[in-house]
């Protein structure tokens, strides 16, 4: 019981006092945590793609052949737009 109550120390009212409700809330909390980890990854991936598209549409750079990480490309797009253009030009030049 004490181990279970340590887990529920920040729950409110009966959820932190009664053993049966603590176990139910613990199960519910762990399920939500697992689900939200996947949602967080999905949301960040969507954010990175949006940032990359915003910079690309500004200059009309084609990025079809870039096989870099979306996270890295998004950081480059925000911090240094010229660097993103240089990367895309280096990749697209040999294709012409």
TrEMBL record:
What are the record's GO terms for cellular component?
ribonucleoprotein complex; ribosome
Q: Which GO terms describe its molecular function?
A: rRNA binding; structural constituent of ribosome
Q: Which Pfam families match?
A: Ribosomal_L20 (PF00453)
Xref: Gene3D superfamilies = 6.10.160.10, Ribosomal protein L20
Q: Any idea which UniProt keywords this protein has?
A: Ribonucleoprotein, Ribosomal protein
Q: Name one GO biological process term.
A: translation
| InterPro entries xrefs | Ribosomal_bL20, Ribosomal_protein_bL20_C
User: What family, per the record?
Assistant: Belongs to the bacterial ribosomal protein bL20 family.
**Name listed for the protein in its UniProt record:** Large ribosomal subunit protein bL20c
Native organism: Kalanchoe fedtschenkoi (Lavender scallops)
Taxonomic lineage from the root: Eukaryota, Viridiplantae, Streptophyta, Embryophyta, Tracheophyta
């Amino acid at each position: 019981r004490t181990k279970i109550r340590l887990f529920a120390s920040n729950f409110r009212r009966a959820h932190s006092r009664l053993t049966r409700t603590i176990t139910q809330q613990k199960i519910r909390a762990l399920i939500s945590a697992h689900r939200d980890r996947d949602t967080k990854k999905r949301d960040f991936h969507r954010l990175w793609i949006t940032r990359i598209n915003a910079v690309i549409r500004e200059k009309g750079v084609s990025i079809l052949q870039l096989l870099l990480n979306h996270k890295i490309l998004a950081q480059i797009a925000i911090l240094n737009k010229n660097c993103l253009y240089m990367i895309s030009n280096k990749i697209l030049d040999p294709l012409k």
